[in-house]
Amino acid sequence: MTTSQTVSDAAQFHVRNIGGIDETSVVIEPGVTVLTGENATNRTSFLQAVMAAMGSNAATLKADADEGIVELTLDETEYQRTVSQTDDTVIFDGNTYLDDPDIAERFAFLLEGNNARRAVSRSADLREIIMEPVDIEEIKRKISSLESQRSEIDEKISDIESKKQGLPELEKQKKNIESKISKKREELSKKETEIDESSRNISDSQEKEAELESKLDELRSTRSDLDSIRQQIETQRESIESLQAEHEENKTALSELSSTPAAKLTRLEQQIDSLRDDRQALNAEISQLQNLIQYNEDQLEDGEYNVIGRISDDVNSKTDTEESSSGADAITDRLLADENTGSETVTCWTCGSAVDREQIEATVDQLKSVRADRVQSLNDVKSDLDSLKSEKREIESEQTRRSDLESTINRITQEIDQRKKQLETLKEQRKDLTATIETLETEVDELESESFEDILSLHREANEVEFEINRLESDHQSVSNKIESIEAAIDRIDTLESERKTIVNQLEDERTKIDQIEHEAVEQFNAHMESILDILAYENLDRIWIERTQNKVRSGRQKVEQTVFELHVIRTTASGTAYEDTVEHLSESEREVTGLIFALAGYLVHDLHETVPFMLLDSLEAIDSNRIAALISYFSEYVEYLVVALLPEDAQSINKEYDRITDI
């Protein structure tokens, strides 16, 4: 079970011109803070100010103000958020605690209209609400990257295994070369013995013999150098040909890439930022519209109605087009148009006007229609945002590939130029050595005579044997290097296998991440729901739990399996018989508690306790005061700062040790 971190710093708020607040300063200590007061005492306005400091756009500007400010000091860091209005546009600015408040608005700021909190009572898709913050595309990208890494390691291991199979043949070649070298050395020893015996028979020409020996040694050494140069020339030619082939392959790959202007990527980023702002604005607007609809419906039930000012203020402040603004005026006009009819009327407690109930109900229906339009717009924005993000990732990937190819082409070009220069140098050396050999051969011919013919022949044969030995030793070194390289690669197999295992485990984690989140969400809800029902002790309500099932749904022409969260309610009769009930039969208090526990499950499964210090609660009137006290105590175990807005009668049973704020 995850609990909140213990902190010691108080959160200091200074708020001006937000909601109904003129100006106030409030200190929130770690733990539970209860805002107590009657309706219209700015409790909800202060909660909206906390949300604004966190990064939400749900706060409203005071009707008679041009600018509102929320200042937060927390952990020795200061944050400031400003709210201003130009024409029909509300502008938020400043630095906030959260870079992206979206997930906090879903599962931490649990005001009355919160979607997660209302999911149960609205019979919403519980799985969709829990999984909506999960970036599926990012998970797919990680899976693709890990699969590429695994394939690369598999290729390395396969290459090593292939070379390993050729190791016995290389060992055989090495032994064969060693045998030939041994035989050639024996042959050379015999030649040198014959030369020594022949040299002893030539006593009168030792000076010439010494000179001849010197020339022959020089000739042998020069020929060996020439052979080495020729091998180096051949190696350089092969390297250049290989590099040129690689150069052409990379140029072909580069030419096949499409060219995306930088301006397009900038434009995509701007569009993504704009859509994110639209998404936040629409979320705030939908939430406020829902609050307005709920408030008006509650007033209709009570028989008193404060709709005139609310509709005019809220609808005009929550829509950013002339059509919405004029629509709000038209709605207000219709509410005042028919005061003297015989229909049932409702009296506005702020201005005393009598308004036809049917007109009010029609107005509420129109507000619901506006909300539905905003929800559709929000879905469209989310779809466009996902599409633009995918396009941006493709462009960035292609740009990275282009940059890598251009870098590789430049490197290969430089290496080709360098090797060509080395090749020209080697050719010059070969030319010089060839000329030297010709000169030495001429000098040796001049020193030769009939008396030296045999010994000269022996020297030539000895030189040839030495040359063959050098060649065999070079081959031996080459084979030995290959063997050492393969053995070193074989030693790396264990490391590669370990790396592959790690990547496979990461792949498994990524592929099952969605399943893990779904499973953990269900486990969190079921565990906390069981605990809270034990604490609250509702009559004949035994259990409320979520079952995770797979249903087949149609996707295009095919049917695919889709995970569904099914909510079950178990009750018992007076005789103790258990039976399954429906969500519709839950009392308002039971539905409210179930929705709050579902929001808590989302808060925990997305680890908000690690990043969002505040959880906000209001509008708990449907729950009796004793159960409210127990619920707050339960939630406080998982949150650093729990701020709850309550009516005075609902706050009576709250723990006296909790901080209370009565004046905002």
TrEMBL record:
Keywords: Coiled coil. Gene3D superfamilies: 1.10.287.1490, P-loop containing nucleotide triphosphate hydrolases (3.40.50.300). Residues 378-520 form a coiled coil. Residues 184-228 are annotated as: Disordered. It comes from the Archaea. Belongs to the Sph1/Sph2 family. This is Smc-like protein Sph2.
